[in-house]
From TrEMBL:
Classification lineage: Bacteria, Bacillati, Actinomycetota, Actinomycetes, Micromonosporales
Keyword Repeat set for record: no
Protein's organism: Actinoplanes lutulentus
Name of the protein in its database record: Putative ABC transport system ATP-binding protein
CDD domains associated with the record: ABC_MJ0796_LolCDE_FtsE (cd03255)
Keywords assigned: ATP-binding, Nucleotide-binding, Transport
Amino acid sequence: MSAPLLTATGVHKNYGNTPALRGVDFSISAGEIVAVTGPSGCGKSTLLHCLAGILPTDAGEVRYRDQDIGLWSEAARSRLRRADFGVLFQFGQLVPELTAAENVALPLLLAGSGRREAREAALGWLDKFGVADLADKRPAAMSGGQQQRCAVARALVTEPQVVFADEPTGALDQLNGEQVLGAMVQVVREQGTAVVLVTHEAAIAAYADREIVLRDGAIDPSGLGVAP
């Protein structure tokens, strides 16, 4: 396997006096899908947010292409998330006032693309996920599965190197969840995109190349959710 694209070493994160992460190490290579699993409250989402540069670490470091992003300004980390990183949340978080095409085009517009170019790209990505017919519909007119397909298209429209997916199917029923994730996995496999996939569902984790299990903010070496 190639050298890791993104690594975390000895990452600690506290919320007040409560430790959320206790010395977590992590790595992912280009084109790899890694599932992060574990019981509720074990630190899965906190780890994802630290890896994506959304949250600063209290100790340890996160390196992207061997650069310590913890030393970067918030503005630089925001640019990284607009260009090289894509983020996908459980409830999609589409902008309710915007149409599907406008939601998907938004990252491109923020990066400086022209409106026509951004819309054409958005339409292409909506088509990849089977919702091109919803291009001019707002989220309120879509089902949950349709909204999440649009959210996946938005996360991938910039063709990021790494996608961070935080419980991306958690708001969907099993059938819709597996359809959405299956479509996403097919596209990221074709493009060689790395995916950090946070989930508590074994069926969703099964899409990954490998799995790490967190327990009480630390990696469980047994992989069984038993405290280390």
